[in-house]
Batch of 3 targets.
Target 1
Amino acid sequence: MAKTNAARVKATAQKYVPQTRDQTVEDIAEIGRLQRERARIQAAMNDEIAAIKQRYEEEAQPHAERITELREGVQIWCEANRSALTDGGKSKTANLASGEIRWRVTPPSCSIKAAEKVIEALRGLGLARFLREKVEIDK
C-alpha cells in the first residue's frame, strides 16, 4: 500500500468538560452571563476610547487648520515661482532646504460606458477613424 502524506490531526486536551446534563445547562447559562459582562466591559472601553479620541482631536484641530493654511500658501507660492524652481520646466521636482516640492501630472484617462452603443454611433456618423480594429491569426 502507498503511504499518504496527510497529517493526522489530534484534538487538544480540554481543561474542563461537564459531566452531567445539569452541569451543561449551568455552563451554558454561565457562558451567556460572561458574554454579556464582556460586552459591557467592551462598551465601557469604547466609551473611554471615544472620549480620549475626542479630546485629542480637539487638541490637534488648531494644528490641522494651520497645516492646511500653510500648505495652501506654499502651493500658491510654488505655482507662482514654478519656472524658477524647476529650471524653466526641465525638472518636476524642486529641492528646498526643508523639503522637496513635486509636480506630477498623471496621464489623462478616458472611460467609456456602453461601448457597443458608442461604436454603433461612431459608425453611424461616419467616424470610423476613432475606432481600432484588431487583426489576429485565427487559431
Target 2
Amino acid sequence: MMKHKVFLHSLKNAFRGICSALRRERNMRLHLIGAALALAASFYFRIEKYEFLFVLAAIALVLISEMLNTALEAAVDLKTLEFHPLARLAKNVAAGAVLCATLFALIVGCIVFAGRLKDFFIP
C-alpha cells in the first residue's frame, strides 16, 4: 500500500512539472501548439500508422528536450546568479539540443505532410 502512495505522489509531482513548464515557458506553449497542429493534420490527412509514430516521436522529443532545457536552466540559475562561462555553455548547449529536436520535428513534418499539403492547396 505504501509503494502505491509513493508512486501516486511521484506521478502528481511529474504532472506539476509539466504544468510548471507550460505556465513558465513560452517556448513550451509554442511547441505544444505545434504538436496540436501536427496531430490535427495527422488525423485530417489520415496518415499511415508508421508515419504517425514518427510524428509522435518527433513531438515527444521536442517536448522532452524543452522540459530538460527548462530544468537545466533552473538548476544553473539556482547555483549562480553571476555570469559564468560554464553556466552560459550549459544553457547554450541545452538550448541547442531543443533546436536540434525542433529541426528534426520540422523535417519529419515536411516528409510526412509536404505531398499532402501540396495536393490540399493545389488541386
Target 3
Amino acid sequence: MSSESLLWKGTPSQVLNLPALLLGVFVAAAITAAALLTTFVAGPLVIPVIAAAWVVCLFPWLCKSVSTRFNNYELTSERLKHARGVFSRSIDVLELYRVKDMKQELPLHFRIFGLSRILLETSDRSTPFVVLDGIRGGGELSDLIRRQVEIMRDKKRVREVDFEDDDDGGLD
C-alpha cells in the first residue's frame, strides 16, 4: 500500500509570456500609429484596421497564456508529475529516485519577478531532462525535491553510480 502524499503543486508564472505581450503591443501600437497618420487615405476603414491589428498582434500572447495556464506540476512524496495541453492533455510522470542531478537557474529577468528555473537530469528514458520553468519559491522547491529524492532512494534501495572512461579506452 502506497502512502503517497501531495507535497507541492504549481504552474509556471505568466511572466514567461511577457516578451510575447510586449512584442504584440509594440507591433500593434506601430500599426495603430501608422494607420492614424494615414487617416486621410484610409478614411472610415481606419478603426477596423486598428482593431484587427490589435487582435492579430496579441493572438500569439493569448495562445501562450492559455497554454501556460494548463501547464501544471505536482510533486508527491514519490513522483513528479507534469501535465500540459489545452485540448489534448499529456502527463509525464517521473519517479523521484531517478533524479540524478539538479540545477537551479536564476536569470535576471526571472529574479526581478522572484522566479527561478529548476533543471533535473534523470535516468528516465522517456524524460531524461525535466525543466520546471518560471517557478515561484524555486529555492524551497529545490530543497524539497532533493530531500524527497534521497528519501525515495533509501526506500527503494537505489544508488546512483557514475562510470568514467579512461583515456586509453581499456580496463585496468
